[in-house]
Amino acid sequence: MSRIHLMNILVTGGGRGIGRAAALLGGARGWSVGVNYVRDATAAAQTVEDVRKAGGRSMKLKYDTTREDDVKDMFGAHESYFGTLSGIVINAGITAESMPLAEFTTERLKRVLDTNILGTYLCAREASRRLQKSDKHNRSIVFVSSVASKLGSPNEYVDYAGSKGAIDSLTIGLSKELGPKGIRVNCVRPGIIRTDIHEHSGDPDRADRLGNMSPLGRPGEASEVGEAIVWLLSSQASYVTGGLLDVAGGR
Ligand code: NAP
User: Is 0.90 topped by the overall pTM?
Assistant: First the structure.
């Protein structure tokens, strides 16, 4: 039987939405939680305050995950404040306006792929370097992918769907690289979750409209994804690696 370990984690895109929910649930377990964000300092400060109220330690970390130097500095700042890392939620991601591929600009493609693929790989590379040196007993990476990776998101954002397919592949490959070193790697694949991401992609009603058509008949809440994330991070999931866990209401 596994023992419960207090974790020291970093959550990319932790100020709002799914990342914020995971941060709060980590705080409620007494974990130390670095809250990364790139623009919304007010939301990140609120999340830090709420993690502390929930029982954890927290600080905000303003770094752009698409920039190599920022990623290194973010891990360095986190470690100086909290000590050796034991887990990470690689969650920062964006969508773009719904349209068929034929109408995409190159600028849009670069923005989505840079944030969702390059940023994710840069964070995963730095995490895998640091976790291999960490003396923590339970070491774990959780990616936030999407069921878009298997649905394809036609006429909405096939670039986003493809970027999540890359994260699924990274989960499988990295879990095989790091398993022999005792580090677990998993991802969650949310469905339609009520967060700001839909509004930011120009379709604020998307969560209710499409969520209501899912088998469970409603959109999901960020906390429902957060629960899956903290479980995968924790020592309670000690024999789970290489897993792609759908949190999608049957979608
Ligand atoms: P959200 O509410 O829009 O939050 C996105 C977070 O990512 C924000 O904290 C944002 O920072 C951060 N971020 C974006 N670009 C960044 C960058 N370059 N560097 C650092 N942080 C960055 O979105 P969400 O719905 O919670 O989405 C979180 C993850 O879940 C994404 O990977 C998304 O693809 C995935 N997902 C969401 C859904 C859904 O229906 N909501 C479904 C499937 C998968 P700021 O606060 O500073 O802007």
Answer: yes
